[in-house]
Amino acid sequence: MGEDPVVALRGALDRALDNDRVRRRFGLAVRQYRAVRRELGRLALAVPAAVAELHVRALVGESRCMSEQGAATEDCLALLAEARWWAEMSGDSALVALVDGRRGLLLLRRGQLDDALIDFSSAEKGLPDGPDLGAVYLNRGSLRLERGETELAARDFERCVSITGDGVEPALHAMAAHNLGYALFLRGELPAALRSMAEAARVAPPEHAGVGLMDKAAVLYEAGLLTDAEEALRQAGQLLSSTAARRDLLDARLARARCLVGLEQYLEALALARSVRASARRTGDRLLELRADLIGLDARHGKIIDEGAQPARVRRLARAAEQVLDRAATVPGGARLAADVSLVAADALARAGDVDAALGHLRGLPARTGLALGTRLRAEAVRALVAFGQGDRRRGLAAIRRGQGLLAVQRQRLGAVEAVTAAAAHGVRLQGVDIVAALSQGRADALFDALERGRATFAGSGRVRPSADGETAALVSAARSLLDRARALELEKSESSREPLQLRREARRLQDRARERSWQVEGEIEAPRAATARMIRAELRAAPSDRVVLNFALYRGKVLAVRVDRSGARVMELGQVHDVVERARRVRADQYVLANPLIPAPMRAAALRSLERDLAWLDATLLRGIDPGVPLFVAARGRLVSLPWASLPSRRGTSTVVNSWVARGRAEWSPGPALVVAGPELRHAPAEADAVANVWGAGTTVLTDARATCETVARELDGHAIVHLAAHGQHEPDNPVFSSVRLADGPLFAHELDGTDLARSVMVLSACDVGSVSIKHGGEPLGLTSVLLRMGARAVVASVAPLRDEVAVRVMPALHRGLRDGLRPGEALARAVADEPEPVPLVCFGPLVL
């Protein structure tokens, strides 16, 4: 006897399901589903009940695959209509529920949320526990996220996770865990959200890596980790382009375009959004087309604002936004995009001076609690724009403060320094509105306060102690070993030139895993209070102090500064940004030449003349009107923060302290005990360590040679008021939390110190380049020095360029003698380098102490 035909067809259907749900080979699965249906046509009279069930499952599967390939929704719904007829004919309520669940997803994608919810609820009642019911919970949870019903959405995702766990349906389980992470994020539980996403990535089948990266990117975007989100979406696009998941690929490209807008890469974002829009038009996906229009509007908006917001251009943008808004009213699901499109229109109208029309769009917004965080922040920025446009500064500042309050709540939940700095990306638009309004006032106090309001929101650390995470520690340790091995091979000049590169790539992969785990740690500290110009003036008078506070801002290609002293405050326009940046670049290049002992004397002399010329230009440009001999506190961002401020000619012998914001410090401090560390491969490091230890005398902890390990040094940091590290240093521009100093067993990374309480410590880093920073989107600097400051260090003395050994061995003992004798760090550094024949690239970073 031959094989039972029904059994054979069930086997064929299982193979189609495997290609559909697991392998995501949608084109092959469609052909297999159709082959099953053709064969079923010949069996209809023999086994009607079994044939009906197989018809239903084949039609549902074919509809699902066609949808994933980007077929028109109507064609997919037609297949489901036929499937429902077969299900009703069979009399099996579970089959009817199966069809309803799938139809609900298509209606959800088309934006018919109410109809989709009816179908999902019907499916829930008729399906037994299993993957099909899990899919219903997954899709209904997504619908509830769209409606802002976060608690109900999380409950549905948790049910799906429960049903599909223990290997029952890994793909669904992973998607539900990802979506649960997103729901947790919307509830403000960012670290928990990222933990859920990591669990999803762990269990997801390889074929679902692209979709998993998309979900992860959504959370990273909302966390402000835009560069990481954009990279995840780029990888997702590559993975999905090799599959038949056309709709997923378009979603990934559109999400990447949104990231590019956030990263201010407007032209690339606009091109990507237009490409997705064209694809959506071809398939008749009107909702996706609208989403692409919204991203395109946002890209155009960013470019126009970046180029000066000319009235004619912003009016054209407003008209384009209103046209998209009109179309959204005719597209099912378009209403959920209306708030964001309205805000683009309102923003443009307000900037064009038509505040009444802008107000009309604002009045149509739903309740604030029903909007996503990004939309709520944008709404407050537009409310502020409108209020400032009406001359109502009080109401405008109220909107700015509401937005910053939302950001502060998010920032308080973050633990890792990198996560805190990344979250500042969401504050860019809000602070931009604040600064423009302050400049229009023409008051120095207003600009100073606007700068500090935005900066303080993301200052400081998110926790006060390191995370006790063994897996992260193991990842960092393994990365250290790989880098040490790569360095040893490079020093040996081995013929195998590829091996060090491969080792460094693997180390970077481990570092990235450690970074991601650090984002999953909760925070404990609220954002600090922002300083105001009035407060600073009052404290300068009370001290009394002749110190000058110089707060820099880069605005529309110009370098501005607010000068505050005890007599008052004023705004100064100091020059063009590109001129200052070019001089800074030349200074850095000359410093590298002077640090190289192999450079011939004539070339060295030329580099010194060039360096002194450019330092004098920067001094005359940036410190115009600042009298030599007056103590100076500099608050600066971007390339300005890592200028060699103490090397400027007028600063010789005078205290100069630098920070990225006007942080406040306590005057009370008792020097000692001291920790002195000497790293390997520095000829003068042991002598320097001995000289510094002799300054501090009994009670000094000295770690040299094999004792100066990363674990020992990290442990000893706690409890020492003075820490001196004489070691090779390296700033990693692309991975700043892994900037490091080299110790006996390899590099000690900034990442490892995150969470350490350094509130009593003055840190002296006698190492090359560790005063350099990378600027995260949103303006936050990140590097070894900035991490130490965020851990509460009272001051960090570090070099912003290569520091020659023979200079360090002269300067460092003098610096410590000043600290021992009661000088503040800025004063001690100024005195230590005053008589050096060449500029020394050491800078004192720290808070303002009066």
Structural commentary:
The chain is of the alpha/beta class and 850 residues long. Among the domains are: 1-92, no CATH class; 212-284, Serine Threonine Protein Phosphatase 5, Tetratricopeptide repeat, CATH 1.25.40; 470-518; 674-845, Rossmann fold (3-Layer(aba) Sandwich). The protein has 34 helices and 16 strands. Strands 3-2-1-4-5-16-15-12-8-6-7 form an 11-stranded mixed sheet, with helices on both faces. The model has no long low-confidence stretch (mean pLDDT 88).
Write the layout of secondary structure elements.
Blueprint lengths: L4 H18 L3 H16 L6 H21 L4 H18 L2 H17 L3 H14 L4 H16 L3 H15 L5 H17 L3 H14 L5 H15 L2 H16 L4 H17 L3 H18 L2 H21 L4 H18 L6 H17 L3 H9 L9 H17 L3 H20 L4 H6 L5 H14 L2 H13 L13 H23 L5 H21 L14 H10 L5 E8 L2 E8 L2 E9 H19 L5 H22 L9 E4 L20 E4 L14 E5 L6 H12 L4 E3 L6 H7 L5 E5 L2 E2 L9 E4 L2 E4 H4 L8 E5 L7 E2 L5 E2 L1 H7 L4 E5 L5 H16 L4 H9 L8 E4 L5
Helix pairs in contact: 1-2, 1-3, 2-3, 3-4, 3-5, 4-5, 5-6, 5-7, 6-7, 7-8, 7-9, 8-9, 9-10, 9-11, 10-11, 11-12, 11-13, 12-13, 13-14, 13-15, 14-15, 15-16, 15-17, 16-17, 17-18, 17-19, 18-19, 19-20, 19-22, 20-22, 22-23, 24-25, 27-28, 29-33, 33-34
